[in-house]
Amino acid sequence: GNILVLVSVATTASLQTVPDLFIGSLAVADLLVVIVQQPCLIARVTLDGSLGQTFLDVLNSIGNLSLIASVTSMFAVTIDRLFAIQRPFRYAVLATKPRALIVIAGAWGVCALLTVMAVLLSEGESITGRLVLWGYVSILLVAIVLIYFYLFIVAQKHANNIVTVQAPSTTTTGNNKPVNQKQERKAAKTIAIVVGVFITFWIPFLSFTISQASVSGTPAFMRVFYWVWSISMCNSAVNPYIYCARSIRYRRSFWRLL
């Protein structure tokens, strides 16, 4: 599914908008989970006794990178939606693909830096790196939720204003802005669904990870922890179905590729 998203964004002109580029970045993070982290987790569960610390560090690093890259990509597209709805005219001028690509590259650079910091600060029994990582993720998730709460209030006000001032004889030109605003709101709702699904899948894992420090990784805890971790990673396979259900552009592109 994530490969379909990436190929669609790369080959379909209508899917090469700024928000679609951020969605592509999110698909890369999800694909990293599917093709690397999930197989590594299976190996960790089945061969735990024979795995070296280096392998475990690599697995943790990949997991951390994919997680914070997903959250950072969602934060970026959330800011993009905020800008598009609040400043539509400036957005049309400033939100260009080259700038979006620079933001995406910078975001992945920050994610890589945080991943390295988490490893360096987690030597021995220290949980400092973990706290830094989850603190970053938690701050972004709270910011995303607050921004979408604000966006839906603004969108509702816009919808009420359009209903109030729009006359039956409005021309096609006069309808352009309402139509665009409607499209922006629909895009914002789609990303909000993605964020909601992400939080649903990952909150149990984040809670277990933080509580791991108090139970010292007992065998019973780790068995449950691996199940929770596996469930959280299933989120990476869900997003393409959300895009397909919410966007006719993605549905058409997926059918064309299949």
From TrEMBL:
GO cellular component: plasma membrane
Keyword Transmembrane set for record: yes
Subcellular location: Cell membrane
Topology of this chain in the membrane: Multi-pass membrane protein
Molecular-function GO term, any one: G protein-coupled receptor activity
Organism domain of life: Eukaryota
SUPFAM superfamilies from the UniProt entry: Family A G protein-coupled receptor-like
GO biological process: G protein-coupled receptor signaling pathway
Keywords from the UniProt entry: Cell membrane, G-protein coupled receptor, Membrane, Receptor, Transducer, Transmembrane, Transmembrane helix
Ranges annotated as spanning the membrane: 58-79, 100-121, 133-153, 191-212, 224-244
Annotated ranges, domain G-protein coupled receptors family 1 profile: 1-243
Record's keyword annotation contains Cell membrane: yes
Protein name per UniProt: G-protein coupled receptors family 1 profile domain-containing protein
Species this chain originates from: Nematostella vectensis (Starlet sea anemone)
